[in-house]
Amino acid sequence: MAVTNTPPDLLRGTVDLLILRTLAHASLHGYAIAQRLRVVSDEVLHVGESALYPSLQRLLLKGWVKASWGTSDNNRRARYYTITAAGKRYLAVERVEFERLLGAMTRVMEQE
């Protein structure tokens, strides 16, 4: 992610949320998740392997995603990630909190 001087907890939680939101649309392998985030964000969000795979591992351990092996579009073996019911519930709660935080930040940035 093209962000500097960001507290690790904020970045970690944000990447987790972005991954869950991306997986809410379809099961994807790691590279496809990163590509989808980049494309949907109009090239603003670049989530590298050093942020992506630790986040996916955290999400697996928390039971918010599950993984299975499959074949990618270029005929290579890839691990596909799918959001779970628990992950969908977590995403719904965190999305509300994120919207609240975003609104507060917007109000601060727009103050005169």
Helix content: 55-70%
Q: In CATH terms, what is the fold-level topology?
A: Arc Repressor Mutant, subunit A
Order of helices and strands: HEHHEEH
Distance between the ends: 30 Å
- What is the assigned CATH homologous superfamily? Winged helix-like DNA-binding domain superfamily/Winged helix DNA-binding domain
Report mean pLDDT, rounded to a whole number: 89
User: What fraction strand?
Assistant: 5-15%
Instruction: Count the domains.
Output: 1
Helix-strand makeup class: alpha+beta
Count of β-strands: 3
Radius of gyration: 15 Å
Question: Which SSEs are present, and which pair or pack?
Answer:
Elements: H1 8-23, E1 28-29, H2 30-40, H3 49-62, E2 65-71, E3 77-83, H4 85-110
Antiparallel strand pairs: 1-3, 2-3
Helix pairs in contact: 1-3
Architecture overview:
By secondary structure, the protein is α+β, with helices and mostly antiparallel strands. The chain has a single domain, classed as Winged helix-like DNA-binding domain superfamily/Winged helix DNA-binding domain (Arc Repressor Mutant, subunit A), CATH 1.10.10.10. The protein is built from four helices and three strands. Strands 1-3-2 form a three-stranded antiparallel sheet. The longest helix is centred in the C-terminal third of the chain and has 26 residues. The protein is globular. The chain starts with 7 loop residues before the first helix and ends with a helix.
What attributes characterize this protein structure?
112 residues, alpha+beta, Arc Repressor Mutant, subunit A, three-stranded antiparallel sheet, 3 strands, globular, disordered N terminus
